Amino acid sequence: MDRLKLLMIAGAGPAILLGSLTVSLSQGGPPPPPPPGTITTADATGTVATLTLNPTFDLTSPFFHPLGTNARTCGTCHTPGDAMTVSAANVEARFDETEGTDPIFLTVDGSDSPRDEVATLLERTSAYSMLTSKGVIRIGLPIPTNAQFTLSAVKDPYGFASAAELSLFRRPLPTANLRFLSSVMWDGRESPAGTNIGNALLHQAGDAVVNHEQGIFPSLTTRTTVFNFEAPLYSAQISDLVAGPLTAGGAQGGPGFLINQPFFPGINDPFGRNPQKAPFNPNVFTIYNAWANLHPDGTAQTAQRLSIARGEALFNTFRFNISGVAGLNDIAGQPNFVGSCSSCHNSPNVGTRSLPDLMHTGIADVAHASPALPVYTLKNKSTGETVQTTDPGAALTSGNWADIGKFKVPSLRGLSARAPYMHNGAFTDLAQVVSFYNVRFTMGLNAQQQTDLTAFLQAL
Fold first, then answer.
1. Which residue has the higher pLDDT, 161 or 37?
2. For the residues of 68-128, what is the DSSP string, one character each?
3. Which of 51, 125, 143, 190 is the most buried (most CB within 10 A)?
4. Tens digits of per-residue pLDDT, 250-262?
5. DSSP label at 140?
6. CA torsion, points 375, 87, 73, 52, in degrees to nearest 10?
């Protein structure tokens, strides 16, 4: 392993090894000039930028070449213009351009059911409805043999799902900002306890070839080449249509500042698990502190910049009652935990979870279910209790009743390029995300506060 110079993302220390590149984790100072491999793309609220620490953004990398038996590549679902994932708008445009024959449109996992007919344009329009509308891939996973629960009923609008293979519709996660991960995949299945994140990503690259590109598990050399392409990638919003450049006036938006952003597993943990014993700081995001004040010459900031700064402050410090969240309330030992958005999104200036705490916020509950999603009724083998869900989440890996509906806390950088949102693409825009949490936790945000918080999220 050492001779291949793999990125040991989960290792603590003053530097992170990225292939042959060593990245300092010192704090402060302006970002370095954008490397030659910086790609900028317009999105719904401005411009997103993805940069690489490699000498160039190598579009000839195996990341962009088929490694399996179909025409797909890693780049099919992880594009620079979508912050290294794929947006529903991108998918819909590709469907319109190719009449549903782009490599992303395959029944292996792109169609609503693997049994869908796709010979005609009308059939393809119907078959790929979830992919084009929600940007989700169908993941087929069984109920584990050792599970504490059984599948007692299934209501699948596409007539396929069973205990042998549940149909789970999930958004592709970004293959950028990987240095800040604490778990791999929405349900954490690629990073079991004790697995280094770098090794987990290597294995995930192989599984992607098998499951999505319909190939054989690739060699370590091939997987390392893919890994060394994606590991040095950083994505973030770099300009806003109204606020302008997100590095102006002392702001620290854009991906350049992420290069030197400190991170280690457990950093800023709110429950005392920081290996450096530092206390939790709720001011997780400090990107737009400079916009909360007057310009150096005494003139006022623009209205949009003030809104973004207010949204950042709300994210950090607006306190509300968090209850019913497995993976947080149980760890805290408090059924009613008073915290802020940063209590869950605790990694500084990134918003990931610095430890692999998967959480159940309710997004997979039937109460929030789209009629387009299957509904599964699960029964506890010991107690007879039943629960309905559109996705059992981490429970399909662990088999544990307590893990039903748990998912990872994702990175928040580059959000505007990554619509729709949540693991199942439930929300088309960030205003809907803010509204969901405002209701879910009875936060009491007024209209202006919701607007400010949305403006901030759009500027990440």
1. 161
2. SSSS--GGGT-BGGGTTB--HHHHHHHHHHHTS-STT--TTTTSSSTT---SSHHHHHHHT
3. 51
4. 999 999 999 999 9
5. E
6. -130
Beta strands in 165-256 (DSSP E): 166-170, 233-240, 244-245
Cβ-proximal residues to 207 (8 Å cutoff; 6+ apart), any chain: 190, 217
pLDDT of residue 199: 95
Question: Which pLDDT does position 258 carry in this prediction?
Answer: 97
Q: Which structure tokens are listed for 254?
A: 């854009």
- CA torsion sign, 392 to 107 to 433 to 87? positive
Q: Is 58 a residue whose pLDDT tops 60?
A: yes
Which of helix, strand or coil describes residue 22? strand
Distance CA 188, CA 204 (A): 11
The residue among 44, 42, 41, 40 whose CA lies nearest residue 429 is 44
pLDDT score recorded for residue 368: 83
> Residue 417: how many CA atoms within 13 Å on its side-chain side?
33
Annotate 271-283 with DSSP letters as a single string: TS--TT-PPP-S-
